[in-house]
Amino acid sequence: MSEAGTRNLLREERVEDGAVLRLILAAPKANILDAEMIAALTRAFREAGSDADLKCVVVEGEGPHFSFGASVPEHLPGAVESMLPRFHDLFRAMFDAGVTTIAAVRGQCLGGGLELAMACNRVVAAPGAKLGQPEIRLGVFAPVASVLLAERTGRPRAEDLCVTGRIVDAEEAHRIGLVDEIAEDPGEAALGWARDHLLPKSAAALRHALRAVRTPLLRHFDEDLRRVEAIYLDELMATADAEEGLRAFLEKREPVWRNK
């Protein structure tokens, strides 16, 4: 039995007698991570951190896709200065919660959507899923992926995905370590994995074990992300090409790069 609630664009369901929280991005078909969705996710993870009985959080998208990524209009000058720090606070809330997280990915999982998935401890994808960091095509880059992606794939593959912006299918993502499991129903597979490996264990022990094993990552994550955020806001956004790429995307035209 589950208890369902609604908060903005995020649907929350407690299952497995309350031991598992499903966070469902409920803005199909794109499930865009805009300011409202980011705030809802951040609140949910902060609340999860204070729930002593919670053993797992499963993040998934409603409809055919996980998420097309963060809101492009909110990346424009005048909006990005507040949006980006708030988006990054979402990842701090995820890590601070200390709860094991699983992303159940269907369809497209791009940009900020992939950053959200890769921050989870486990990623389960449907066979037809498409994953990538296409920000470079818009004249910008992916800050969280710049810090986290190499943790999953190794640096050469992380640099490949961030610099080329190419999209990979579930099979390639699995080969390079971006995806941990391929399943026809990734949501059910995520819950099955949690039942087998997490629910029989102590919630307190799970949290301590997760924090311990992530010590090397957490030691540098906040500092590295702040440094990358500064590169984005202070240096990248001072270039003509960043705004040109974003506006070209919104205007559905090819960008005209000035290379500066």
How does this structure look, described?
The protein is globular. The termini are far apart. The longest helix is centred in the C-terminal third of the chain and has 21 residues. β2 and β3 form a beta hairpin. The chain has ten helices and ten strands. By secondary structure, the protein is an alpha/beta fold.
Largest sheet: 7 strands, mixed
Any idea how many domains? 1
What is the count of helical runs?
10
In terms of DSSP E residues, the strand content is 15-25%
**N-to-C SSE string, H for helix and E for strand:** EEEHEHEEHEEHHEHEHHHH
Alpha-beta classification: alpha/beta
- In terms of quaternary structure, the protein is single chain
Shape: globular
Radius of gyration: 18 Å
Mean pLDDT: 96
Features:
alpha/beta; three-stranded mixed beta sheet; 2-enoyl-CoA Hydratase, Chain A, domain 1
In short:
The protein has 260 residues and is of the alpha/beta class.
